[in-house]
């Protein structure tokens, strides 16, 4: 057993929930932009495509520097990296809410992305330390839900945007993040055994390059998102083009798919608590997601499209939960931040490229998306096989 885990005789629930809460709070900063996109475009005199750069800057940063930031996070130490990332993201979120111009806001979004990367690369290592071994898999599944839950809450800020303006909405989002950072700092202050200043960056890079489990987890996650991102991003457009749904209705359908994905994470956590091994859940979850995903854009009725999209997202949500649970079990604590950096970077390369490519392909007919999503699911299953075999 890892000595750091042995030093924690009981699960620190406050520490666990505060780290997950910080993940949710920083993910809110992702969802808040789409909720105010048209308002921002009008206020700053930007075309919609230009304003959309505020959304993609997170993915662009993660796709470029996810691995280097994971290496830096490991070098700083888990608690220092988490709280530094939280402080940077909070200050940047406040600056974004008060931004006088588009350039200032774009710069603030870059620093929000930097804080986001430090938080999500250090969170899993802390969670693996503060929970008992019997709670670890369920705790990592809970961590896996931070992104869909946070993004959904960010999208819900559209109600505040409509009632009081985007600056009020973004100030509330920044306040939620500041509160989450304070709670994390308080709950982690006396926790012993957290991963401290880690390996030199070059040594950590060499370690993760030689660790097949870290690579399999990262590339399986990226391939899985080749299916999930296509559904979550393109579902509103498909409903509009094929069935004449309005922007609001399509947005609600997309939000429902995102929430279903988060519920899949939580369902996986319940299954882990009931004794299901994370590795054993991977292939069935990928198979179920693939079976539903190929039907989404072939559906003859709008509600059938929404239902199959939500079911695919629900089943698929068990995949990241399983992968996050496997990460601390298959990767040493000193390499966990670097492995998370690799996962983040490979995933965001997919996020930047695949939805755009699939949107272009949809111009030739929505049915063309089905074989490509099936292909991504098969690739994910191939990466999952060595994890399944243990």
Total domain modules = 2
Low-confidence stretches: 1-8
**Mean pLDDT reading:** 85
Distance between the termini: 18 Å
Alpha-carbon Rg, integer: 20 Å
Q: Tell me the structural class.
A: mainly alpha
Approximately what portion of the residues adopt beta-strand conformation? Answer: under 5%
Provide a concise account of the structure shown.
By secondary structure, this protein is mainly alpha-helical. Helices cover 84% and strands 0% of the residues.
How would you sum up this structure, described in words?
The chain is 84% helix and 0% strand. By secondary structure, it is mainly α. The chain has 2 domains: 1-198, MFS general substrate transporter like domains (Growth Hormone, Chain: A); 211-390, Growth Hormone, Chain: A, CATH 1.20.1250.20. Helix 6 packs antiparallel against helix 11 (166-188), helix 8 runs antiparallel to helix 14 (247-273) and helix 10 packs across helix 11 (166-188). The protein is globular. The two termini are 18 Å apart.
What attributes characterize this protein structure?
single chain; 390 residues; mainly alpha; Growth Hormone, Chain: A; 2 domains; 19 helices; disordered N terminus
